[in-house]
Write a structure and sequence with these properties.
Order of helices and strands: EEEEEEEEEEE
Distance between the termini: 40 Å
Strand content: over 45%
Number of helices: 0
Helix content: under 10%
Number of strands: 11
Oligomer: single chain
Largest sheet: 7 strands, mixed
Radius of gyration: 14 Å
Length: 120
């Protein structure tokens, strides 16, 4: 059983910054990939930023240059640094950890989410 616990969400003005952290209940090196997703009201959940265990990162076009994903293996955490926040970044942000099994089957683990609200 894997537990992911997010923290760091809150209310911030446009142009401000927030730092989200995700603490995993087991070593993050055991996952093939980790990432952050978000879901705004009335919209589908979307990938914000992801990182493979090889260090490859990918970002949604809407956050490139503003958000940075990083990992801290010693503390089993994944961090999302969010700068220059915009009202459209308002959403519940979810931490994701994935394990790729045989036949490329992906097993996903999810945190409960943390709310980010950006005021204009």
């Amino acid at each position: 059983q894997v537990e992911l616990v997010e923290s760091g969400g809150g209310l911030v003005q446009a142009g401000g910054s927030l730092r989200l952290s995700c603490a995993a209940s087991r070593s993050i090196v055991s996952f093939n990939a980790m990432g952050w997703y978000r879901q705004a009201p009335g919209k589908q959940r979307e990938l914000v930023a992801g990182m493979t265990n090889g260090g490859t990162t990918n970002y949604a076009d809407s956050v490139k240059g503003r958000f940075t994903i990083s990992t801290d293996s010693a503390n089993n955490t994944v961090v999302l640094q969010m700068n220059s926040l915009k009202p459209e970044d308002t959403a519940v942000y979810y931490c994701n950890a994935a394990v790729i099994l045989v036949m490329s089957r992906r097993v996903n683990y999810w945190g409960k989410g943390t709310l980010v609200t950006v005021s204009s």
